[in-house]
Amino acid sequence: MTRLAPTELINELAGPLADWLPKQRWFAGKDREIRAVRPVRATELVGDADPGLVHAVLAVEQDGGGRTGAEDLYQVLVGRTQRLPEHLAGTEIGTVAGETCYSAVHDGDLGTTLLDLIAADRDVAGVRFRPEPDAQLYPGLRSRPAGVEQSNTSLIFGHRYILKLYRRLHPGPSRDLELHRALHRVGCQHIAAPLGSIDCELRGEPVVLGVLQEYLSNAVDGWAMANTSVRDLMAEGDLHADEVGGDFAAEAYRLGEAVAAVHEDLRRALGGEEGDRDRLDAAVDRMHRRLDRVLVAVPELAPYEPALRRAFDAVRSVPLPLRLQQIHGDLHLGQVMRTNTAWVLIDFEGEPAAEVAERSTLRSPLRDIAGMLRSIDYAAHQILVGDEVPHQLEVRAAEWTERNRRAFCDGYAAAGVDPREKATLLRALELDKAVYEVGYEHANRPEWLAVPLAAVARMTAGEECA
Ligand SMILES: Nc1ncnc2c1ncn2[C@@H]1O[C@H](COP(=O)(O)OP(=O)(O)O)[C@@H](O)[C@H]1O
Ligand SMILES: O=P(O)(O)O[C@H]1O[C@H](CO)[C@@H](O[C@H]2O[C@H](CO)[C@@H](O)[C@H](O)[C@H]2O)[C@H](O)[C@H]1O
């Protein structure tokens, strides 16, 4: 079988890729016209069989959004075949030189190739497939794509492994992999064990393309669990949060303990330092800048601006010392999973809004706590969005939130320092997160904008507003 060489294939496929990319959930530049798609590198992983498999890194040039000429890097896996099986029909990208090209992450047999290459510790033309030193891998398992595709694409292998393939690539070390490795080294019980990785060099720098992890096959994510509890409560409008079957407080307590343990493990593994007044001021300045940006996009936030700025400025005079260290950076209920035995934190990529280089700056652990407290508030209040809400249910939502936020802080305090002791900083961090959420919901889920806006209103109630 004579085939186009991989780079030639991707060059020929550039037009169809430009149509296909914006339809993918993980494609970050949906709002800007694509000017060009070029292969930065293309590697044949399966060449002598049908289907074949090509690994490619694309440079996608887009205009608009004030970033004219900006180029982003994306990872794609392209399957190529003479005859696309019916079950893969929806995955087609285009046809080139008589072969149908399709998104290979949907092909369970091609997924096996990735696992087998990691297990065999192979290099293929500069793409390095590595097992972690202590990993015992069983090759040969077929893959299936994880149901939820978000910023990246994850493949699940039986009940054993999950391989996260990063889509938008950022040359340089992967925070997600580095922190998982560091936590695993100190025996952290609240992460999924890292088992392998895929990387290559791009523009002279290493870039992590994928991370293989232990698959938590019996786990439920925290958002789903909290929602079940809230629904149970709402269905029983006359009962209090501690009287209904689905009470979440014991889980919120355990979650607090788990987050404290991960913070302690991060300190043991990677150290920390004491923040000074300058660092505190820089953090406050970042809060103000974020508020400036979000106010432009969402004028509904304007009435709360004076109270928000006061809450941020209050941080300038909080007593030192302030402990800084590596933290999760993007902690919310969707980033934690409950297995039969423990809460596990996933996805240590860091704060989505921050530049990649900035994400590894040492931060206050209170930032993670603020993220989780906001998430508990979200779980109770998003369920009421859009309906004429009976007062009774609003009271129930407030009770649920209060009960579970308290339980979470109690759990954290039992295993570490009580976050409520630093109330001024915690309040400012929560408000900063809520401002971020206002921007996020406005851009992504406008129907949920009311959730963080109402939270800002509640948290600043009683204060003089604009
Ligand atoms: N180790 C794991 N075991 C089981 N499911 C997982 C694991 N890691 C992630 N997931 C599932 O995959 C989803 C996406 O994972 P995540 O790392 O957050 O990827 P993304 O960067 O695309 O958001 C999670 O919400 C969770 O449902
Ligand atoms: O999933 P990511 O880590 O990329 O985070 C983004 O999406 C989150 C929504 O999935 C968003 O989280 C917000 O909504 C959650 C409920 O869906 C809630 O639990 C969080 O508290 C709230 O911040 C997150 O802000 C955004 O960065």
From TrEMBL:
<keyword id="KW-0320">Glycogen biosynthesis</keyword>
<dbReference type="GO" id="GO:0016301">
    <property type="term" value="F:kinase activity"/>
</dbReference>
<dbReference type="GO" id="GO:0005978">
    <property type="term" value="P:glycogen biosynthetic process"/>
</dbReference>
<dbReference type="InterPro" id="IPR040999">
    <property type="entry name" value="Mak_N_cap"/>
</dbReference>
<keyword id="KW-0067">ATP-binding</keyword>
<dbReference type="InterPro" id="IPR011009">
    <property type="entry name" value="Kinase-like_dom_sf"/>
</dbReference>
<keyword id="KW-0418">Kinase</keyword>
<comment type="subunit">
    <text>Monomer.</text>
</comment>
<keyword id="KW-0808">Transferase</keyword>
<comment type="pathway">
    <text>Glycan biosynthesis; glycogen biosynthesis.</text>
</comment>
<dbReference type="GO" id="GO:0005524">
    <property type="term" value="F:ATP binding"/>
</dbReference>
<dbReference type="Pfam" id="PF18085">
    <property type="entry name" value="Mak_N_cap"/>
</dbReference>
<keyword id="KW-0547">Nucleotide-binding</keyword>
<comment type="similarity">
    <text>Belongs to the aminoglycoside phosphotransferase family.</text>
</comment>
<feature type="domain" description="Maltokinase N-terminal cap">
    <location>
        <begin position="20"/>
        <end position="107"/>
    </location>
</feature>
<protein>
    <recommendedName>
        <fullName>Maltokinase</fullName>
        <ecNumber>2.7.1.175</ecNumber>
    </recommendedName>
</protein>
<keyword id="KW-0321">Glycogen metabolism</keyword>
<keyword id="KW-0119">Carbohydrate metabolism</keyword>
